[in-house]
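re: ur question from yesterday

yeah so i grabbed the chain u mentioned. its 289 aa long if i counted rite. heres the sequnce exactly as i have it in my notes:
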Amino acid sequence: MITIENEILKVEINSLGAELQSLYNKATGLNYLWNGDPVFWGKHSPVLFPIVGTLKNNTYSYQGKTYSLPRHGFAREKEFLPEELSDREAVFLLRSDASTKAVYPFDFEFRIHYQLTADELSTVYAITNTGTDILLFSVGGHPAFRLPLTSGTRYDDYYLQFEEMETLQRWPISGDGLITDNPVPYLRDQNMLPLKKSLFYGDALVFKYPASSEIFLRSSKTSHGLLFQCGEFPFLGIWAAKDADFICIEPWCGIADSVNSSQILDHKEGIEKLMPGKTFNRQWRVKLF
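ran it thru and got these structure tokens back, copy pasting raw so excuse formatting
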């Protein structure tokens, strides 16, 4: 386990998946990250790469060949190399190799950079195309925040507050993890989403192109919460395992296949296309209070 800390925050990271394990605020005495109880969901904050969500039949085609990838790709199950470490920063590296190219025929370097500044954690995903072909990929975060945060409060005492007034459709997820063709009106000129566990009985809330880049997790019954800054991620997932005490705020560059997907990777909705020698960067941040 690798630890970075400053005067306010202490963060633990596992090199397996370069996954956050703990987000502890010394000032509040609270750990804001889910504990990974396997009865509900054994992860804390997996990194999604080189796909986000589920592929139709768990397969895709590229240049006439068919490949298979599990939901959310393979990065979360790969050992990352701790490339740079200091008191307040950690950079982890995953390179393509024979095992990745068997299921994903691209050359890449994927770096995850964690940095602490006061009461804020910054997470940067940097993907470099080290090959000679255009790199096709998706990337996303999946941090799970403990809820309720403080004793004396309940799950449904909390709400999400969007930076902007939002009019959004929810894109339902089919039984096999695919995006359906019939979006459902969800937020209508609103910036508040009250939380309750039943919201997620039908899987994640999936939104495309929200106006807000910042989302607060708050409660009227405690002063403690967090500010999640999504940056330039175009898709947003909100999820929790059934009846679990956490909420995931998931910034995505990419999305699951639709039920009518052609399964051709070049045509996949939200797929990023990166020229050889270039690097793609996206950042999300969370401020804990």
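noticed a couple things. The chain has one domain: 2-288. also The chain has a mean pLDDT of 97.
anyway ttyl
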